[in-house]
Design brief:
Blueprint lengths: L5 E2 L9 E2 L7 E4 L6 H12 L10 H15 L2 H19 L5 E7 L3 E2 L5 E2 L3 E4 L4 E7 L9 H21 L8 H15 L7 E4 L6
Parallel strand pairs: 3-9, 4-8
Antiparallel strand pairs: 1-2, 5-6, 7-8
Helix pairs in contact: 2-3, 4-5
The chain binds zinc ion.
The site of zinc ion has 7 residues, from helix 4.
């Protein structure tokens, strides 16, 4: 059973990307590419399961600021808190700081077969812009903090792939999800939950 929702989060590439469920319980990975050059990077990304993390609570404090802004602040305040989080993170990882836009809600996309899916965020490697939605498309409800932070970490890990690891395609590999989970749980101060990976080839979608 597949519990992860499939979303598009890579607008420039035109590729359908799976996305981890907010709780990191299940993972859908991208199908390995056929071209050797791309496959080499895919395997490198898959095997890079660790991510260096700060030894202090700077990211945790930045995440708390985002949570506080989501409770009491405006969308501008949420965006500002996200920008601060990204400044702290990029200083640590030694990469350029991506721009971030916090937007209200994304129009619902209807996928083939009538499966509607929602997008929580995306990243453009061309412009270095992270967009993140503060409300869900279906019910217009405020995105939960956990989903919001995991989305921010997910998109930032695409940025790290492009700017630090040389993974220009930034595929959704097992390693990618493990790096994303490491960053998310570090920033949230929660233990990493065990999760399984399932290749999209096995999904039949
Ligand atoms: Zn992604």
């Amino acid at each position: 059973m597949v519990t992860a929702s499939i979303l598009l989060d890579w607008p420039q590439g035109g590729l359908a990307h799976p996305r981890l469920s907010a709780e990191y319980l299940a993972v859908l990975t991208d199908r390995p590419p056929r071209k050797n050059a791309l496959l080499t990077k895919f395997v490198e990304s898959d095997q890079l399961t660790g991510l260096e993390l700060p030894g202090d609570d700077r990211l945790r404090l930045s995440a708390l600021s985002i949570e506080s802004a989501m409770k009491d602040g405006t969308r501008a305040a949420v965006q500002h808190a996200c920008a601060e989080f990204l400044i702290v993170a990029t200083e640590f990882y030694g990469v350029p700081t991506p721009d971030v836009r916090a937007l209200a809600s994304r129009p619902l996309r209807v996928r083939e077969g009538g499966w509607a899916s929602e997008l929580f965020g995306d990243y453009s490697p061309t412009t270095g812009l992270i967009r993140i939605w503060t409300r869900t498309a279906v019910r217009k409800q405020v995105t939960s903090f956990g989903t919001f932070l995991s989305t921010l970490c997910h998109e930032f890990c695409h940025h790290l792939d492009c700017q630090r690891f040389g993974f220009r395609q930034s595929p959704h590999t097992r390693g990618f999800y493990e790096r994303t989970a490491a960053l998310y749980h570090h920033a949230r101060g929660t233990p990493i939950k065990p999760f399984g990976c399932e290749s999209r080839e096995n999904v039949g979608a």
